[in-house]
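Fold it.
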Amino acid sequence: MYGQGLLKGLSISIRHFFKKKVTEMYPEQKPNLPKRSRGWFELTPDKCTACGLCVNACPNGIISIESYKDENNKRKLVQYRMLMESCIFCGFCVEACPQGALYNTQAFEQTVFFREDLNRILYKAEPQSVQAERSEA
């Protein structure tokens, strides 16, 4: 009675021992990730309308947006910043973006030496262009 379980367990172990190995040699070979894997975030600033829906959707409040209104009463993006040290990669901000300006990439190597390096500025407008547009308004 007790020997049958032991033999069954050993037979499974022996079968797995002779199968092809599935280990990936990570640093030398990059893994093939699924298309919808959640890595770093990227922003297309031309599509962003600075509506702030991504800021409201983030459960940890890591996203901050600076914007201003131009002469046509439209919001213009000045700075888009994410404090990645508290991000849980839930993807709510990507889903909330109506324009599709915020998206995930497949870059998954996110280790840094200093915690401040996790504070990512995804977009920052050049000061001359911002001041020129504000002076026209």
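The chain has four helices and five strands.
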